[in-house]
Structures are given as C-alpha cells and as structure tokens.
Design brief:
The protein is mostly helical. 62% of the residues lie in helices and 0% in strands. Among the domains are: 175 residues, no CATH class; 75 residues, no CATH class. The chain is globular, with a radius of gyration of 22 Å. 53% of the residues are buried. Keywords: Glycosyltransferase, Membrane, Transferase, Transmembrane, Transmembrane helix.
Length: 501
C-alpha cells in the first residue's frame, strides 16, 4: 500500500511541514515591526490556535520521519523527501527562535561601524538599518556582544547591506544561507558514510532529514548549520588526504562558531597516522599543523572583516544564560542555592565552579576519545562525533539544536545500533521543547518527556531500521540497500568498530 511506503511517508511529512509553517505564520517568532505587513501579530486567540496547528504538524512530521526510517529508501528517494519536507520552510517567518534577528542586527552593526564585540544590538538606531531587527531580538541578547566569529559577521553584514536590514528580505536571505549549509551537510554526510562503509541513505535520514535539523536550521535559521557543514566538509577533505584544505575549512567553521575547533584534534590524528619520519616529527605535525593552518585562516578572516579580535573574549557570553537542558548549570544552580542556604555564601561562584568542572571533564573525555582513535579502536571521525556530543552534554549552555553538532557525524560513522537509537529518540523528543515563537514553556518539557517514553517503547518493539539491515547481535544479511557501497580512504586508518565507549 502506497500510504505505508516511502512515497506515502514523504507526502505525510510534507503535510506536517506545511502545517508547521501555516501555524508558524501566526505563532512563530514574528518581528516587533514588519514594514511589509506580512509577519504581523493577529492576537492571542489566533496565536493559540496557530500554535496548536504547528504542534500537530510537528507531530505528523516526526511520525513520518520515524516511519520513513523503516523503509529501504535509496539515496535519491531520501534526497527527494528532504526537498519536499524543506520546501515549506523556505518562505516562513522565523520559527522556534529569535536568533536570526540577532544575526541581522549584528550584521547591521558591522555595516554601521559599531564594535559588535563590546556592545549589543541595542546600540543601533531604531529608525536606521537593522533597527526593526534589533527591536525583535530576545531580551537576553539586546545588550550582549556577539559570540560569533568574523566570517559569520561578514555574511550577516552582506545580508544587512544588500537588504537594507528590512525584516522579510533579510530573514529570507539568511535562510538561503541556512539552505546552502544544508546542501553542504548532505554532501559531507554522503561522503563520510561512504568512507566508513555505511549506508548513505541512513546517514541522510538521521543527519539531514531529521526534524530537529529542519525546524531549527531551516525554520529557525540557526548558524549551527553553517558551522556543521564547513566542519564536516573539512573533515571529509582531511580523510581524503587533503588535510591542509580540510584544516582551512575548519578554520572557517570556527569563524562561525568556536566548537568546530574540536575537529582539529581529530584531523591531527589523521595527520599523525599518515606522516612519515621520526616519531617526534609525526607527533609535532599532528598536534600543531592543523591548528596553525586554522589559526592562520581565522586570523586572515578577522583582518579582512575589520571586526577585530574581540571574538576571543566573547565566547563565554552564552554561559550567562541558564538553559534547563544543561546538566552542569542545573547541578551548579542547585548546589549554589544549597550552599547559600546552609553556609550563607554567594551561589554564583558555586554554579560557575561546577560549570568549569563540567568543561574540564568534557575535555578529559575528548582526550580519551582522541587516544582511542590514535590506537585504532575507533575511527577519528566517529571519535569526533562522540566528542562533540560529550561537549554538548557537559556545556554550561545547551540548546536542543546543539545535539546536531555531533549527531551529524555519528549518523555517517556508526552502523545503526543502540547509540543511534538513543539519538533517534532524543531527536524526536527535543523538537517539542521549544514553542514556535521561541519560548520554552513547562509543557514543552512535559511533551519532550512523553516523547522519550513513547519513542523508547516504540523503538524497543520495532527498531527504526529498514528491511535488510541487521542490528548488532542479530542474525541476517548485513544490508541489501542499493546505496551500500563501502570505500576506503587512503588517508584514514583501518576501519574499527564504531560502538560508543
């Protein structure tokens, strides 16, 4: 029956995407003022109904994605499905976040000559370029310096200059950047999967077709998509032996968001494995060469942008905002309040100490993963994916879409198993944490928790794997999908088991 086929789920997901956009048109993160009159507030009653429509559409999309994962779809089928599900988002207002207004405002500040690393969007003239975007920025960010690198600020400035900072064209231009980022992610996922002998369509299903990516990178226009795309592309080049070009691309990714720097460590593992000569020279080349190239690219981008090196001092500004998904911030806040009650000491230093300890533990685990990759017990790419997930789990600020940093890598480097199943359930759950207008209401966490329970029960009864794919520990053919064509890169070490430590 076609309704239970890949084509049927493709159409069902497209309906879900369209419902999200229709609901978001009235209940998304609308600007304070839109001179074109397209994205305007229609009142609380309309907004409530529209939000319900968006939540229903989101559920339809998640179910369609979940069921699509059970079909033996080819790469072409999955790419067509991705196009169907992405298309409705292209002309939508900002969904699930107000960050795009910050991007436009910060780009306008660059155009106007403001120092984006010392002042926030509130410095803009309300009646000038970017004024409407600045007025629409979330309260936390209006007086906060930009935490992004010069490359992204150059892109934002180009958008602001081209559109005059007018809301609708500026948002759509930033969404075009997000769409190009998605194309780059797709390109890199396919090649990473091929290098590791895994199914390209499965990698695309978890890493690109994922509703978490669609609503936050395409719908929410988060620049994490650009960081992930550049980082993955750089790592693919490194796997192919082109580590100089790969390190340069990672340097550009860092100039969007700094977490991409983690990948330099694992490019170093590849460089060490392929280097010749004395052991000390191989170690020095692996440890320092990729970083030096990335630093040169970062320095060049900074000088070209003219924004200065203030980005070196603003990387921690996000930690000042508490997010309930951060385990270390929650624990630190709780211990701080307890210390205040029992010992009458300031709670903030306790919270800061716990957050710092969490980052230190994350760094230690990343080093352990790098050592395992060096010894050949896992591939460098898979170790990178796990490292990014560890970094997110122990960061002082965690947003739902941060899961995409490492998941995009793991999707292409791990044979679908228990760990991928956990990522699948988390993806289906975290989409509910955020309201279409960007808020995080209590019922969002309740819906996410319910999705975790239902997803876990469903995946235990019937794992989300297509016909012909064998789960670890089960008998049967490994895979019969037509796109399963293993290849080996001369630059990568001997393939090793891909299970998480």
């Amino acid at each position: 029956m076609w309704a239970l086929s890949a084509v049927g789920y493709r159409r069902l997901g497209a309906v879900g995407s369209l419902a999200i956009v229709v609901g978001g048109w009235f209940a998304g993160k609308l600007p304070v003022h839109d001179p074109w009159g397209l994205w305007t507030d229609h009142g609380s009653a309309t907004k409530a109904v529209a939000a319900a429509v968006a939540y229903v559409g989101l559920t339809v999309l998640v179910v369609a994605w979940w069921q699509y994962g059970r079909t033996a779809s080819t790469v072409r089928d999955t790419l067509v499905t991705l196009a169907w599900w992405t298309a409705p988002f292209l002309l939508a207002p900002p969904l699930y976040s107000a960050d795009v207004y910050s991007y436009i405002a910060q780009g306008s500040m660059v155009v106007e000559g403001h120092d984006v690393y010392t002042v926030g969007p509130s410095a803009l003239d309300p009646g000038g370029i970017g004024g409407d975007a600045a007025a629409s920025v979330g309260n936390h960010w209006r007086d906060t310096p930009a935490p992004y690198g010069p490359l992204f600020l150059l892109i934002s400035a180009a958008v602001a200059w081209t559109t005059g900072g007018t809301i609708v064209p500026a948002v759509l231009a930033m969404r075009l950047v997000a769409l190009l980022s998605l194309v780059l992610i797709v390109w890199a996922l396919r090649r990473l999967a091929r290098e590791h002998g895994h199914s390209e369509s499965r990698a695309l299903w978890l890493g690109a077709l994922n509703p978490l990516l669609l609503i936050h990178v395409v719908g929410g226009v988060h620049n994490d998509g650009l960081m992930i795309g550049l980082m993955l592309a750089g790592f693919v080049l490194a796997l192919r032996g082109q580590w100089v070009a790969g390190s340069a691309l990672v340097g550009l990714a860092i100039m969007v968001k700094s977490p991409a720097a983690v990948s330099l460590l694992f490019i170093g593992v590849l460089v060490h494995a392929s280097a010749t000569g004395p052991q000390w020279r191989r170690w020095a080349k692996g440890l320092f060469a990729p970083g030096l190239i990335a630093c040169a690219v970062a320095g060049g981008a900074t000088l070209i942008s003219g924004t200065g090196f203030g980005w070196l001092h603003t990387q921690g500004v996000a930690a000042n905002i508490h997010t309930a998904l951060s385990v270390t911030s929650d624990l630190g806040l709780g211990l701080g309040e307890l210390a205040h009650l029992l010992l009458d000491v300031d709670a903030e230093p306790v919270k800061s100490a716990v957050q710092t300890l969490g980052l230190a533990v994350a760094l230690g685990l990343i080093v352990v993963l790098a050592r395992r990759a060096m010894r050949g017990s896992m591939t460098p790419a898979h170790a990178l994916g796990l490292s990014l997930l560890v970094l997110v789990a122990l960061s002082p600020m965690v947003q739902p879409w941060y899961l995409l940093w490492g998941m995009a890598v793991v999707a292409a480097t791990e044979q679908y198993g228990r760990f991928s199943a956990v990522l699948t359930v988390l993806s289906a759950a975290l989409v509910y944490e955020t309201h279409p207008m960007g808020a995080t209401p209590p019922y969002g966490f309740a819906l996410a928790g319910l999705a975790v329970v239902l997803g876990t029960l469903a995946i235990r009864r019937a794992p989300v794997v297509p016909p012909g794919v064998r789960l670890p520990g089960r008998r049967g053919p490994e895979c019969t999908a037509e796109d399963q064509q293993p290849s080996t890169s001369a630059a990568s070490p001997t393939p090793a088991p891909q299970n998480a430590p």
